[in-house]
Write a structure and sequence with these properties.
The protein has about 210 residues and is α+β, with helices and mostly antiparallel strands. The chain contains four helices and six strands, in the order αββααββββα.
Amino acid sequence: MLVNDKNEANQAENHILHPGSRALFRFWEGIRAERAAPARDDLDLQQIRALVPNLFMLERDHIRQTFKWRLAGTRTCELFRQELTGKDALAGWDNFEAATIKRLFDGVVTSLQPCLVRFRLNTTLGQMIGAELIGLPLQARKDVRIHVFGGIFPFRDIDNLGYDGISSLELSGARAIWTEHLPGDRLVEGLRARKCALQDHSGRPQLNFRRS
């Protein structure tokens, strides 16, 4: 299992294997500039038109303590052989692996640190498909909330495999990608203030979550 290493900030791309993931990370780095994360209005998908079918967006489901697919591109849905939008993004994983991935997604939305997940999909025909997921923080429109914006890129062509579903998922590697934030970043400060606002005087979280 890969782990996070803050000393390797300048070598982040060395850990990204798929060219699609690497291109998406470079695009995200370019539009965020010196900010901790870009805003959704900064997205110009024409710049990464070839990647759009592989893209997704996740949002945190506070009530169910999970993440759900807010949007999923056509190639991502084809990979899983189902429509994903609105469904639980951690469904199909065993408890340990789901907890590992959730912890990384939590880091994206609370610490504004990208994540990288490599995994295997086992099909109903006994085929194995290796894939790489990259998750990147993206600020919601007119809000301090953060979504997980990213892409899933298989390492083999799935068009002629003929399977009709995924029988199981296996995690092969997972890590956070450390990125530096400038002191006083407004988004970082806003998230910190929002977190404090959800704490009562005893330090326990209040159970008054706002729906999207």
